[in-house]
Amino acid sequence: MRITELIDRTTLFDRILLVFLLFVTGASIVLIPLYLPHGGQIRIEVNNKLLYKLPINEDKTIPIGGLTVEIKAGKVRVADSDCPGKICVKQGWIDSGAIICLPNRVVITVEGTAAAPKGVDATT
Amino acid sequence: MQQREKNRLALLAACAIAMYGFERLIPTPIPWLRFGFANIITLITLILYGFNAALTITLIRIIIGSMLTGTFLGPPFVMSLVGGLFSVAAMWAAFRVRVFGPLGLSLIGALFHNLGQLLAVYAVFIQNLRSILILAPVILFIGTLTGVLNGLAVIFTMEHLKKMSDNVQNTQ
């Protein structure tokens, strides 16, 4: 069976759905990183509790449970992990976004520089 | 349930487990890339034998599969359980609407599988919505690509089955 015959077996709604999904997910992959803060601070949460808040431009290596988190040259990565899948290690260096290690329940997120004051403060 | 039906379900479940085991042997360059070949079997079962049969083989596949890979009751198990239930329910609902072919059903299955997994991660493990939202588009995009692959495989298999049953009827 040729690939064109396979395509002939799809309905109009199949094709609309495919184009829609590719467009929405593709566009969000491209657009979301533009709005993510680059550099600044790194938050490391374990079990939904904030454990560390570190500046991204200070080189450092921290062991967290079974993980080794490495900060270097404005980027962060999980250098090593004892989890079976090692998705966090494969993700490599990031300077925006997040790394999640599910088995160890570790979330590493990159935040913007010196959190700008939100809402109304005492002087206004 | 009749003996014949039971045998059929057991055979389909065995196929699904074999697919699940096979895809784990394929090295993937991108994390989060899982082909979900077992969904080919789930979808064929859904189309041919209905919701109950598809749900049964999904549950069997997830439980036996997780025991084989040693992740029973671990995080991957919870994720595939929620994802599997979401995907079977969504594919059944879409199948009832009758406007989608196997490709669309497979895409819906993949989409809801991933949504279910993300929901499970959020509800059970990590209450950090922002980091999950950052990863979601990548996971859903990859899911769409594998959904196309599996959908085409389902079309191919269904055509082949049709030809085979035609041949059987002609010779009789």
List the helices and strands and how they pair.
The complex is a heterodimer of chains A (124) and B (172).
Chain A: H1 3-8, H2 12-35, E1 41-46, E2 49-55, E3 60-64, E4 67-72, E5 75-80, H3 87-90, E6 98-101, E7 106-111
Antiparallel strand pairs in A: 1-2, 1-7, 3-4, 4-5, 6-7
Chain B: H1 3-25, H2 38-49, H3 51-69, H4 75-97, H5 102-125, H6 129-171
Helix pairs in contact in B: 1-2, 1-3, 2-3, 2-4, 2-6, 3-4, 4-5, 5-6
CATH superfamily of the largest domain in chain A: N-utilization substance G protein NusG, insert domain
State the end-to-end CA separation of chain A: 71 Å
Unreliable spans of chain B are none
- Strand order of the main beta sheet of chain A, please? 2-1-7-6
Summed up, the helix count of chain A is: 3
Average of the residue pLDDT scores of chain A:
84
Give the domain tally of chain A. 2
> Mind telling me which CATH architecture of the largest domain in chain A this is?
Sandwich
The most extensive interface, with participating residues per chain, is: A-B, 34 and 41 residues
Helix content of chain B: over 70%
* CATH structural class of chain B: Mainly Alpha
Biggest sheet architecture of chain A? 4 strands, antiparallel
Would you tell me the overall average pLDDT of chain B?
91
CATH topology of the largest domain in chain A: mini-chromosome maintenance (MCM) complex, domain 2
Helical run tally of chain B: 6
Estimate what percentage of residues of chain A fall within beta strands.
Answer: 25-35%
Beta content of chain B? under 5%
Largest sheet of chain B: none
N/C terminus separation of chain B: 28 Å
